[in-house]
Write a structure and sequence with these properties.
- It is a single chain.
- This protein is mainly alpha-helical and 135 residues long.
- The chain has 2 domains: 61 residues, no CATH class; 64 residues, no CATH class.
- It contains 7 helices and 2 strands.
- The protein has a two-stranded antiparallel ribbon.
- Helix 5 packs across helix 6.
- The longest helix has 14 residues.
Length: 135
């Protein structure tokens, strides 16, 4: 959550003319807490969360640099991964980082661990937010 808060603060700092609010962050809600709340409300999250993707972005997300993300794309969507390998090589764009250095996604070892699904988890803040919603 700290990284999300840092991005929110950077956005507000670099674009002071915008009025930017982050109500979930401001209430201290984590992604796991939000997933729990929508699940209890009977709303199914996008399938990408169940597969282990950290967001429901476009697949693939070319701004993603995590090798675990790209290993998951390779496992779940091999044709998409193959297309991105070809494109990144043609354009000489290294989309991931391995040991701190930029690398092509086809350099990610075949046995590299993939990102894991976010387990919905409610905490005290969920209850407080839900009480506010029903008030």
């Amino acid at each position: 959550m700290r990284a999300t808060r840092d991005r929110a603060e950077a956005l507000a700092e670099h674009y002071p003319e915008l009025t930017v609010r982050f109500p979930l962050i401001e209430r201290g809600l984590t992604k796991a807490a939000c997933l729990d709340m929508i699940g209890r409300a009977g709303i199914e999250p996008p399938l990408t969360y169940a597969l282990g993707f950290p967001n429901a972005n476009c697949l693939p997300c070319v701004k993603a640099t995590s090798p675990a993300y790209w290993a998951l794309v390779r496992r779940e969507f091999p044709e998409v991964f193959g297309r991105m390998v070809d494109l990144s090589r043609q354009m000489n764009v290294k989309l991931t980082r391995l040991k701190g250095a930029r690398a092509f996604i086809d350099e990610i070892p075949a046995d590299h661990p993939v990102s894991q699904p976010i387990a919905p988890e409610c905490d005290l803040l969920c209850s407080l937010v839900e009480q506010d919603m029903h008030a």
